[in-house]
Write a structure and sequence with these properties.
DNA repair, DNA-repair_Swi5, elongated, DNA repair protein, mainly alpha, 0% strand, 75% helix
Length: 83
């Protein structure tokens, strides 16, 4: 069972959270919609992942044509694991 939180601590916590929200809103920018920014970011991530998947498919086909491994193609193209 949780220990009860005093009303003063609860009010202080609420005030701290409201201050944090205001600070983050200022950092984000006035009149900016965080949800719209998040949706755009997710859309861009999907595009990136599709491009990366297509690239990996082509690298796999190149490795097959060259009768080598995908790892060797990555090394030849100087691709890092983080790419």
């Amino acid at each position: 069972m949780h220990a009860p939180i005093s009303a003063k601590k609860q009010e202080a916590r609420i005030a701290a959270l409201q201050a944090e929200v205001e600070s983050l809103q200022k950092e984000l920018g006035e009149n900016k919609d965080a949800e719209a920014i998040t949706k755009k970011h997710i859309k861009l991530l999907h595009c990136y992942n599709e491009a990366k998947d297509a690239t990996q498919l082509l690298i796999g086909k190149l490795a097959t044509l060259k009768e080598t491994t995908v790892r060797q193609i990555h090394d030849e193209l100087d691709l890092r694991d983080s790419d």
